[in-house]
Amino acid sequence: MKKCLISLFIFLLIAMGGGFWGYQKLKAFQQESINAQPDQLLFVERGTTGKKLVTLFEQEKLIENAQFLPYLLKLKPELNKIKAGVYSLNGIHTVDDLLTLLNSGKEVQFNVQFIEGKTFKEWRKNLENAPHLIQTLKDKSDQEIFKLLDIPSILKSIGEYKNLDGWLYPDTYNYAPNSTDLALLQRAAERLKKALDKAWNERDENLPLANPHEMLVLASIVEKETGIAAERAKVASVFINRLNAKMKLQTDPTVIYGMGENYQGNIRKKDLETPTPYNTYIIDGLPPTPIAMVSESALQAVAHPEKTDFYYFVADGSGGHKFTRNLNEHNKAVQDYLRWYRSQKNGK
């Protein structure tokens, strides 16, 4: 009997020692370094755990031997809630770091920047070059894409619409890998709709604009005319005053837009005399569509223009504009600008 007790005691000691040794091994494995590069991404499929995770870690050369991983996950089940996704390994140094990340579900985020004042043609290049974004629109025309987006119903009264310029909100958009280009554009369209609705519903009284579409068209012109946010409400006032006075808008950015591929960097006299739907030196009122993507600042400038008696403006040579009340003042401001321009060109 005594011998049996001694044998049992020895067995328990061995078992306890083995258990302690195993526990220490698992703790050491949990803190083991992994071979991750700062720019490395790890793609985890749905249902990846246990042996599949061992295979993934070894295939990606994150760890040479991951045989202890299934035992660690059994010991610490809180680390076994692996979520599918794409993860950045930047800042991940140990097995514990990696498992914590995979349990968090915090996928890597990419972004694409859409800049105000640009056209959808320019935006589309950024969209097509965005990393890890599923491209579903490459073979679709702008008109087809327009129909796929939730564009404001005001367009139903305008007729066939082929132009996406102006109808997407400029910003930097974050997205998870394997998002679609259409989903990203839908976010931009929805944000623009909200900004336009807000500007239209809160607009000043008695603006010479029939609907939100016209507000967006004018905001796109303001966007192209000045990059100085503090100046936009004053620029908007000039166009509002001209519309109220039934004067032609005579704005160069619309002419350039109407020229399309024919624009080579400068506007000639014959360009101002060539009819297009966008030549505001010839047509009355607003052009038929926005000419660029619009910032919220430009929308608010049109919704709340300054109260001025200005009808003209011209570049002042310092990045801003000189605003004038009549043609005589405007012509003088133009001459001042030309003198400044010649002095800069001649290096004086």
From TrEMBL:
GO terms for biological process: cell division; cell wall organization; peptidoglycan biosynthetic process. Its EC number is 4.2.2.29. One of its GO terms (molecular function) is lytic endotransglycosylase activity. Keywords: Cell cycle, Cell division, Cell inner membrane, Cell membrane, Cell wall biogenesis/degradation, Lyase, Membrane, Transmembrane, Transmembrane helix. The record marks 225 as: Important for catalytic activity. CDD domains: MltG_like. One of its GO terms (cellular component) is plasma membrane. The keyword Cell wall biogenesis/degradation applies. It catalyses: a peptidoglycan chain = a peptidoglycan chain with N-acetyl-1,6-anhydromuramyl-[peptide] at the reducing end + a peptidoglycan chain with N-acetylglucosamine at the non-reducing end. InterPro entries: MLTG-like (IPR003770). PANTHER family: ENDOLYTIC MUREIN TRANSGLYCOSYLASE. Belongs to the transglycosylase MltG family. Functions as a peptidoglycan terminase that cleaves nascent peptidoglycan strands endolytically to terminate their elongation. NCBIfam families: endolytic transglycosylase MltG. This is Endolytic murein transglycosylase. It comes from Rodentibacter rarus. The lineage of its organism: Bacteria, Pseudomonadati, Pseudomonadota, Gammaproteobacteria, Pasteurellales. The gene is mltG.
